[in-house]
Amino acid sequence: MVDVMVGAMKRNKLYGLIILLTVEIFTLSSAHAAFCSLRDPVSAIQILYQGDYQFRSLIATVTEQDRLAVKEKLPFTLHKSEVSKHTLYLLYKNGEHAGFLQARSEWAKWGLIEIAWAINLDRSLKGFYFQRCRSPECNDTVMNNINKHLHNKSIEQLMLFLSADGEALSESGESAFSTSPIIALLVLRSALKTLAITDISWAKDIEKIEAGY
Amino acid sequence: MKKSDLKCLTISLVCSFLFSPFAFSSSVDWAFLGENSRGTIDLSSRTSSNLDTGEFSFLHVLGLDIHKVFSSSSADIGTLMFQPYLLKLNNVNNPSFIFDDGNDTKLTWRIANFNYTALNQGKFNIRVGHFEVPFGLEYQIDTNGTLRQLTAAQRGIKTDWGLSVNGILPRFEYEVALTRGSGVELRKKGNPHLFSGRVGTLSNKNTVLGISWLTGDVLAANGVIERKNIGLDASYYYYQWQFMAESSIGKVAGNNTLNGFVELLWRNAKEDLSVYTQLEYQRAEIDYAVSSKSDSTSYWATGVQWVNDDGFDISAQYKQKLKEAEGVNIDPTLSVQLRYRM
Fold first, then answer.
1. In this structure, is the dihedral angle defined by the CA atoms of residues A132, A138, A141 and A147, taken in order, positive or negative?
2. B204: which chain A residues are within 8 Å (Cβ-Cβ)?
3. CB of B123 within 8 A of CB of A45?
4. Do the Cβ atoms of B69 and A57 come within 8 Å?
5. CA atoms within 13 A on the CB side of B57
6. What is the ipTM of this complex?
7. What residues of chain B lie within 8 A of the CB of A45, using their CB?
8. In this structure, are residues A201 and A61 in contact, taking their beta carbons and an 8 Å threshold?
9. What are the average pLDDT values for consecutive 10-residue runs of chain A, which has 213 residues?
10. Is B292 on the interface with A (CB under 8 A)?
11. Do A43 and B170 count as a contact with CB atoms less than 8 A apart?
12. pTM of the predicted model, to two decimals?
C-alpha cells in the first residue's frame, strides 16, 4: 500500500515537473534571433538623414508595463513579442543632437514589414523608409506619397488619419492615402507606436539629452 | 533504433527542456555587460538518423551569444560579437577534422569579432576577429546553428579568423576580407590564407544580387587545399515566398569546379513557421593532370522550422542524394533539432 502511494507521489511529481517545464518554456521571454543577424539601419540613416550625420545607439528594454502605457496613449499597442531589447539611434550633426531613428516591425497579412522612422527633436516625424517589405506595393512611389503626408506630423496630428479604434483610415486618411490605403494604414499604426514607445521606453535618456548632458 | 540510441535521444530532449528554463532564466542578468549590450544563452540538441543504416548521431550545443555596441558621446565606435559554443558529439560518423573523433567535446568560436564603425557612418568599417567568409548567399542569411545550410560546404570553409573592410551604402553593400584560411580554429599548419569578398545590392531589398570571389589555401583534414571561386548569387522575395540561387566556378587543388544551388522557401504570415526545399549540384574534374574527365554530385533537401515568441525552436530536415561522384557518400538523412535561446 505504502509502495503504491510512494509510486503515485513520484508520478505526480514527474507530471508536475513536466507541466512546469512546458509552462516555463512557453512563457519565458527571450531573443530568438542570433545577434550576428542584427544590423544597424545604415542605409535608412543615409537616406533619411542625408549629409554629414553620425549616429549613436541607445539600447533599452521595452517592458510589459511600456506596452500597457502605449495602450493608454493609443487605441492599440505593441505585439507582446516586442517586449525585449530595442535600439533607438540618436543622430548628431557637428556634435549637436539632430534627431532620432528607430526601426520597428509591423505585421502585414503576408508577414513582417520593417520600417525605419526618422524622428525630429520635437518627436514629430521626419520621414520613413521601408527597411524590409516583401510586397511589391512597398515601392518608392508609395513611400514618397505617404511620406509627403506624414512629414513633421505629431502623434495628435497622425491620429486624425485613423478611425477612433485605430483599425481603419478616417475620412481624411482615406482622402490622403487613396492610392495605397492598406499600406498607409500599416505605416500610420507603426508611426504612432514608434512615437509613443520612444517617449515611454527612452524617457529618461531623452530627458538627459534635452537637459544637455 | 538501438536501446542506447533511444537513451541518447531521450537524454538530449530532456536536457534541452531542463536546461533552458530552470538553470539560467531567472539568474542571468546581462546588465553586468554594461549599457548597449545584449546577451543570451543558446542551447540545442540535434539528432540525425542515417536512414540506410539506421544509425543515430547526436550533437549537443551550449553557447553564449553576446552583442555589445561601444559608443562615444555622439557616435558609435564599434560592435563586439562574442559567441563561444561548447559542442558535444555523440556517435558521429565522419566528423569535421576539428574534432578528434565522433564523440569529442570541443569549445569553438562561432562568431567573435569587433567591427570598428566610427570611420564613415557605416560606409567603411574595419572588422577584426572570427567572422563569416563573405561569399554568396551565406553573407546575407544567418544559418549558424540551424539545420538549414546554404553553400558554405561547397567552399570547405564558412567562418575564418582575420580582418575585413565592410560597409553599407544607400544602394549597395560590401565586405572584403583577408583571413587565415584555417576556419573555426586559428591554426598555422600548412600556412593557409584566404582572400575573399562580396559586393552586392542591399540585402534587405526584395531583389538582391551579388558577386563574390575567394582565392587562397584553405586548411582541410589532409593539409591545405588551394581554392579559387567566383560566384553570382540572387535572391527574390515575393510576399511569403523566397527564392535564392547561387552559382560559382573555380578550382580546387587545380581541378575545375562548377557549383549550383537553388532554394525555395515559404513562411507563414506570422513568420514563425517556414518550409524550404533545396537543390545542390557540384561538378569537378577528377584529376586535371591526367585528363579533363569530371564527375558530379547532387542532392536535394527539404526542411521545416518552427520558432515561437519565447525563443523555442524546433526544426527538421530530410536530405537525399540524387547522384554521387566516386568517393563521395551522401546517405539519406533525417535530422531533428530542438533549440532554446533565453
1. negative
2. 43, 114, 131-132
3. no
4. yes
5. 20
6. 0.85
7. 121-122
8. yes
9. 50 46 43 75 92 92 95 93 91 94 93 96 96 94 96 97 96 95 96 97 92 71
10. no
11. yes
12. 0.87
